[in-house]
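Sample intake sheet
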Amino acid sequence: MPRQFITRAIKTIHKTPHFTFNVMDVETDGIKKDFPQVLRIPAVLVIPLTPTGRTVLVRQYRYPVQQEMWEFCAGGIDQGENPDDTARRELVEECGLVVDTVEFLSEFEAMPSVAVNSFRVYLAPLSDVALDFARTPDMEDEIILTKIVHLNEIRGMINAGEFHSGTMLAAYGILMAHLQTRGGQ
């Protein structure tokens, strides 16, 4: 007999512009329990990439884990905003890069065990000359600096524990699968 997963009620306990915190009254196989749920606005994650395999990372302070982390550009999709436009906007806001074209690669749920936290991953092709203009933003509240790296350097950063955000590792894996499929990098 198939298992039944029933949500009896969802109670919102706190709400912010980007997050909703709920308690779910659920029942599984006749057992009732409360389960936490976090809803986050959908987000994009955009990876600028040159034909020679260079990209830019941003160093951000992440308050929940109280540490600095290397990441790709990412941010929430404003209500009514086209996700492709969000990807281009985030590149400008986080590292000063302007691109005309972004390519949607995939979408994933970052933390399905506790949160609805979806990310759309984009590739932003650009020239090596254009990438050289990447800069640390003046007024961004979390970004500390930007760093231009080759994809091979990210592999080394992963092995050294310097690139360790689960969301960023998922995006890197999606990018590498895409590049392998198309025979590049």
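Comment: The two ends are 48 Å apart (CA to CA). Residues 166-182 form the longest helix (17 residues).
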